[in-house]
Structure formats: C-alpha cells, structure tokens
Specification:
Layout: H1 2-17, H2 28-38, H3 48-71, H4 79-100, H5 106-131, H6 137-161, H7 173-189, H8 194-227
Helix pairs in contact: 3-4, 3-5, 4-7, 5-6, 6-8
Length: 228
C-alpha cells in the first residue's frame, strides 16, 4: 500500500511539473526522473530566474571552451561538456521548478525560455565560429540559423495546435547536448574532425526542420479547413 501511494505521489508530481508541454524525445523518461529527483533538492533561495541565468552561464562556458581550445590547447574543449551539463541543469530545471513550487508564470516563463535558448545557442555557435578553420566558419552560422528555424517551428506549432513541444520526434535539446558533447570529445582525440561532424549535424538539422515545416503546413491547412 505504501509503494502504491509513493507511485501515485510520483505520478502527481510528474503530471504537475510537466503539464505545460509534451515530450517525445528518446531520453524523456530518464530526464523526467532526474528532474523530479533534483527539484526538491534545489535550495529555497534559488529561484527559476536564477536557474535560467545558470543555464545561460553554462552556454557561456561552452563559448569559453572554444576560445581556450583555439588559443591555448585543444583539450580545453572538454570544459564545454561541463558547460553543457550546467546549461542542462539551468534550462531543464527553471520552468519545472516554477511548476513544482506552484509559482509558474506561463507566458513570462515561455518568453524567457525562448530568449535564453536563443542567447545560449548564439554563444555556442559564436564559440565554434572562433574555433573553426579553413572556411568552415559558415557551418557555425548555418547551425545557429537552423536552430533559430527550429525555435520558430515550435512557436508556430504552439499557435496552430495549442500544444507546446520542444522536441522533433525522438530528438530534443537534451539529445542535442549529448551529440555536441560527443563531438567535443572526438575533436580532442582527432583534431580537425569537428568540421565534418558539425557539418553532418547541420545537414541532419536541415532535414529535420524541412520535414517539421512540411508537417506544420499540413496542420495549418487542416485547421483552416476545419474552421471554414
């Protein structure tokens, strides 16, 4: 009976904490379990806004890792992995903490989350721009532009369906962080590989965005016909 009560309590926390969005990413279950585990451990003096700032500082550390990797030593890129972890902590816990503490501000949080995400990806992209060589800097610009496109898609989907999703199928921001971390490790081991891997990621993101845009247009067309 105690175990059933514990499961019910956990389910209630998950439902309340993630009530504002639908997740479809591969790591959804593990991520939600981790977040629910961490939320009660966040000190009272740390607010959701502070967590948002921490997440942005994590992106700043990734930027710094690229700078140090460019001008000092290649292995400094590994600092970027720590930055990605910090970014995940801030970005994943800020809004969830607000819902957990029942102090959510839906539209304020929605706007702040988008702004912080954009600043974070610009910092990471600019860091790679500094690190990139032999004309591959265009990949950094393209990646940032495509990520911006994916943000626009999520907002338009929200407008059309009233369902906020930050994932594209099985891939979400958390999976993207893992991929970036893996690219940094491979670059430290095999210097120069980052240009090919970043180029591959950019192509995949282009394909995903194109497919999502076509789906979005179909949803818009369906809604127009439904409301006629």
């Amino acid at each position: 009976m105690g175990q059933e009560t514990q499961i019910e309590g956990y389910s209630a926390i998950v439902q309340r904490t993630f009530s504002d969005r639908k997740r479809t990413n591969i790591l959804k279950r593990a991520e939600q379990l981790t977040i629910v585990f961490l939320l009660p451990k966040v000190p009272k003096f740390i607010s959701p806004n502070v967590l948002t700032l921490i997440g942005t500082l994590g992106s700043g550390l990734v930027f710094l890792a690229f700078v140090l990797g460019t001008y000092i030593a290649n292995w400094y890129l590994l600092l970027g992995i720590i930055g990605l972890v910090i970014n995940w902590l801030g970005d994943s816990l800020d809004g969830r903490l607000a819902y957990y503490r029942n102090i959510q501000r839906r539209w304020y949080g929605f706007a702040l989350d988008i702004i912080a995400d954009w600043i974070g990806i610009v910092l990471i992209g600019f860091g790679y721009y500094i690190y990139a060589k032999n004309g591959t800097q265009i990949i950094a610009f393209t990646f940032v532009a495509l990520y911006g496109w994916s943000i626009i898609i999520s907002q338009l989907r929200y407008k059309i369906t009233n369902e906020y999703r930050i994932d594209s199928g099985f891939v979400g921001p958390t999976e993207l962080r893992f991929i970036i971390a893996l690219i940094l490790i491979i670059e430290v081991l095999f210097q120069g590989s980052i240009a090919y891997l970043a180029g591959l990621i950019t192509i995949i993101l282009l394909i995903i965005n194109t497919a999502d845009s076509l789906k979005l247009l179909k949803l818009g067309d369906l809604k127009d016909k439904t409301h006629d």
